[in-house]
Write a structure and sequence with these properties.
GO terms for molecular function: ATP binding; ATP hydrolysis activity. The protein has 306 residues and is an alpha/beta fold. The protein is built from ten helices and 13 strands. The strands form three sheets. The protein has a six-stranded mixed sheet with strand order 5-6-7-3-8-9, sandwiched between helices. The longest helix has 16 residues.
Length: 306
């Protein structure tokens, strides 16, 4: 298994003035699942294309740390699979015929091919529809077939572009369960989706792309914000208390606003409030979702909003 290391990666499309990707630095550990999120046009597909060897960075480097003897392209061909958002199979062939055709392109021995086809049929729960024509499958089964084709060469690194878009709840659950199992097997996964709750559910780290720039989000994000209004005579006292706890705060008038790193950071504040003789005029706590944090970040970096 191999880590993925991206250093100072930039990419410009021909004749473009602005970079599609700018100063991207990522380290994805072997066996991790990285969630890649961002609005349309943010650079997600461009980055996946570079990771798949379909595009070459303008500047910067892409390395797979365990690759000692192969060229970058050869390593990608042998160890990496991309499952695109678009259906990547022949609709006029059956599920089994598609798998038998694509496994013949994987460069693996015929004996291994005979093992891989029934294995991915079972992994993706396609056994019952193996003889059905692909164009007659439901949307959920088509997504499973897309994923099955990507698994045929038993890749150590898997790129998934919107793998659950348009699927029914049963197929979504089956795909998510399979991804969890692939993680247990040590496979490295890069996962793009507009379903942020899904990304938060299965990913070990989350990177947001916006206008070609990458920002790492904590899995615990959104933000946890405590607001409280105190007596004017107690402002200095509460400043001292927050400083003693090492907490940063904003003060407007007699109102404090604190952004907390975790739920645990709330406990000593509540303990102070419980034992304080000074009355509070207002106390409010809110934890925003990852979705709201994402929207806030996109809006913050949108010049039309300022």
């Amino acid at each position: 298994m191999s880590d993925i290391q991206i250093s100072e990666l930039n990419f410009y499309y021909p004749k473009a003035v602005d970079a599609a990707l700018s100063s991207i630095n990522l380290h994805i550990q072997s066996g991790q699942c990285l969630g890649l999120i961002g609005p349309n046009g943010s650079g997600k597909s461009t980055l996946l294309s570079i990771l798949s060897g379909l595009l070459t960075p303008t500047t910067g480097t892409l390395n797979f740390t365990k690759n000692k003897n192969l060229s970058l392209i050869k390593y990608i061909q042998q160890h990496v699979a991309l499952v695109p958002q678009e259906y990547a199979f022949y609709p006029q062939l059956s599920v089994s015929q598609n798998l038998q055709y694509f496994v013949s392109l994987c460069g693996i021995k015929p004996s291994a091919q005979k093992i891989q086809v029934p294995l991915v049929l079972q992994q993706c729960q396609l056994d019952k529809v193996s003889h059905q024509l692909a164009n007659t499958l439901s949307g959920g089964y088509k997504r499973r077939l897309n994923l099955a084709i990507g698994l045929l060469k038993n890749p150590s690194i898997l790129y998934l572009d919107e793998p659950t878009v348009g699927v029914d709840p049963s197929s979504r659950a089956a795909i998510i369960a399979l991804l969890r199992e692939l993680k247990k097997q040590g496979k490295t996964i890069i996962y793009t989706s507009h379903l942020l709750s899904e990304v938060q559910e299965i990913c070990d780290q989350i990177i947001m792309l916006n206008k070609g720039q990458a920002t790492q989000l904590e899995l615990s994000q959104g933000q946890k914000v405590l607001s409280m209004a105190v007596e004017h005579t107690a402002i200095n006292l509460w400043q001292d208390r927050f400083n003693a706890l090492g907490l940063e705060f904003n003060l407007q008038g007699n109102s404090f606003e604190l952004t907390l790193a975790s739920y645990n950071a709330l406990l000593p504040i509540l303990d102070l409030i419980r034992h304080s003789p000074e009355p509070l005029h207002n106390l409010h706590y809110a934890a925003t979702s990852l979705t709201q944090h994402y929207l806030n970040h996109v809006e913050k970096n949108d010049p039309t909003k300022h």
